[in-house]
Design goal:
Layout lengths: L11 E3 L5 E3 L3 H22 L4 H21 L12 H15 L9 E2 L4 H26 L4 H24 L5 E2 L10
Antiparallel strand pairs: 1-2, 3-4
Helix pairs in contact: 1-2, 1-4, 2-5, 3-5, 4-5
Length: 185
Amino acid sequence: MKLYTKTGDKGQTKIIGGETRSKASDRVEAYGTIDELNSLLGYTISQMQTYREIKKELEEIQQILFDCGTDLATPTSAKGYRTKPASTLWLEEKIDKYAEVPPALTEFILPGGCPVASLLHMARTVARRAERCVVRVQEQEEINLDALIFLNRLSDYFYAVARFINFREGREDIRYRRNTQVFHS
C-alpha cells in the first residue's frame, strides 16, 4: 500500500466509513487540530529530561487524543466510539493532584516559565482551539461528546502541570498586570 492516495489532490479526503469530505470541513479541521496537538505533545515529551511520571501521562494523553481524532473522523453512521468518560475522570484526578502543589492564584498569569512549562502552555492553547473546532462540528452533526469533554479538561490539565513544573523548577508565575506602561531603555 502506498503512503499517498491522491484523493487530496482535489481538496477531498475520506473519513472512517468511506465518506468523502472536503479538507476544509469542520470535521476534518477538528481532527486535524487534535493531530496537531498530539504532535506538539510528542515534541514536549522529547524535551523533558525529568518528570518521568508526567511523561508517561503525556504519552497516555497522546493515545487518548488518537482516540478522540478517530471519533471525530467517524460519522454517526459508523459508530463505535473510542473515547470514554473514564479518560476524563483520570484527567480530573491528575488536575487535582497537580493543582494542589503551587500556591493558589487570585489573578491571571502569563504563559511561560521553563521550556517544558512553556510548551505545556502552548499545548493548552492548541487544546482550546481543538475544543472550539469540535464544538463547531457538534453544532452541525452528532459526535462523541466524551471527546469534547476530554478536550475541555485537557486544557486545565496542561495549565495545572505547567504551573506544577514551574513551581518545582523554582520559576515564579508571572502575574498579569493591568494597565502596563510601555518601558523604553
